[in-house]
DNA sequence: TTCAAAATGGGTGCTACTGTCTATTTACCT
DNA sequence: AGGTAAATAGACAGTAGCACCCATTTTGAA
């Protein structure tokens, strides 16, 4: 196995320092670039063609997952490891959909990171142990073809827009005024969203909107 | 100036690695302990009496701010630098109340961290530049004696409890049943909370409860 | 072009929250 | 002992969201 060329993208300098030290202490890996935002990451990947790119999910200008989409569109042969703070099922599910090989949490140890790098460089995969619940859950859902997962993906653009307004705690009437449509139309959208997301009862929709507004 | 003894407490091993590397590259600082949870941090501070303790806010078993309170109760002469992911005004305000000298964000650069350490070790203070808005705001509020800040601190224990239930999207009736009190009482608490927090309009309270549930 | 999904607008009854009151009982502090 | 804050309970009117229905128009893909 050749020495693996690694690109590291993370907007937290001190954490990035930790990553680099950890990785460079192993002779089989060589860091060829470190960047602190998404656009830089994408450009460097195009230019330097690393074997593995370690990407933070939340970065300025382009998120880790957006980078992956752009890289895959260009058919570049780069293995991706996603790094994230959060044990967020939605992000995780998206990452799996994008066929990402490594998904590790920032709370992982240096040893875990190295294991992940070795697995991925050998064509395997690595997912942080704390996420195994999600793995099992996703596997079950997809095997049973239920598509029971109530997800934002199923919503239409207009429904998403309504959700954004809801997260700001606007009433149907206010939203109707803002969008220049009838408040009844807004309430119909609300009903459809509740239906798709399987939300029942008063204010369950508002709760969902607030808790998920960062993903809209 | 003697060499400063530093304790580092953070539950993310890779980030901790970055911290340590950064700090040890300067000869005026010596790391005497690194720990990954709050109780360990407190015990090591008691035992080793470092000059400066760098504490993550969110850690298992004891948060950074809780550690500070316990340390101050013992009258230990340890300078504290708080590290955090979030630009959260509530935490920041609490930290200032606790007379913490350093408050820096994890997105800071290695240079910023060193500046913070030097300032604090010389009896000064350091606050991440992104937080200057808060600094100014807090200063203004306290100078003008308004206490206009609608804060969770003003709430009674029962009101806090009600907020927790609200964040779970329970109705007044459900909450009343759970606590074995009349639903009218619950609605009175709601009204009082809205009043104290200056929340107006339908669902503004629910929105607040959901957005602040982590602090309850 | 034809068909389906999405967006638009509406009706009706019910329930929960809001705003604005009053009032009583505890509990704690001076 | 007296006073204050907190917790308890209630009345009453107004508004918004929800859960059912319904129909029409616009849009886009097969």
Offer a quick outline of the entry.
Two copies of one chain form a homodimer. With 216 residues, chain A is α/β, with parallel strands linked by helices. Chain A has helices at 13-24, 38-48, 64-73, 89-97, 110-121, 132-143, 157-167, 172-179, 183-197, 204-211; strands at residues 4-9, 29-35, 52-56, 79-84, 102-105, 126-127.
Overview of the structural elements:
Two copies of one chain form a homodimer. Chain A has 216 residues and is of the alpha/beta class. The first copy, chain A, folds into two domains: 140 residues, 3-Layer(aba) Sandwich (Rossmann fold), CATH 3.40.50.2300; 64 residues, Winged helix-like DNA-binding domain superfamily/Winged helix DNA-binding domain (Arc Repressor Mutant, subunit A), CATH 1.10.10.10. In chain A, strand 5, helix 5 and strand 6 form a beta-alpha-beta unit. In chain A, helix 2 runs parallel beside helix 3, helix 7 crosses helix 10 and helix 8 packs across helix 9. Chain A is elongated and about 65 Å long. The interface between A and B is medium-sized, with 28 and 28 residues. Chain A binds a DNA duplex (30 and 30 nucleotides) through helix 7 and helix 9.
């Amino acid at each position: 196995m050749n020495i693996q060329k690694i690109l590291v993208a993370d907007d937290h300098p001190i954490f990035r320092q930790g990553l680099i030290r950890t990785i460079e202490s192993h002779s089989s890996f060589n860091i060829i670039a470190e960047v602190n935002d998404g656009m830089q990451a994408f450009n460097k990947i195009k230019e330097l063609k690393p074997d593995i790119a370690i990407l933070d999910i939340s970065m300025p200008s382009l998120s880790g997952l957006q980078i992956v989409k752009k890289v895959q569109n260009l058919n570049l042969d780069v293995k991706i490891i996603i790094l994230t703070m959060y044990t967020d099922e939605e992000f995780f599910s998206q990452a799996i959909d994008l066929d990402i090989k490594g998904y590790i949490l920032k709370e992982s140890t240096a040893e875990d990171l190295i294991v992940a790098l070795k697995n991925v460089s050998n064509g395997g995969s690595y997912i942080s142990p704390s996420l195994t619940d999600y793995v099992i859950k996703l596997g079950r859902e997809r095997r049973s073809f239920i598509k029971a997962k109530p997800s934002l993906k199923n919503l239409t653009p207009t429904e998403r827009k309504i959700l954004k307004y809801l997260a700001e705690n606007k009433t149907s009437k206010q939203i109707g005024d803002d969008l220049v449509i009838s408040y009844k139309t807004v309430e119909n959208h609300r009903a459809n969203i509740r239906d798709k997301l399987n939300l029942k009862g008063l204010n369950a929709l508002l709760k969902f909107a607030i808790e998920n507004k960062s993903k809209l």
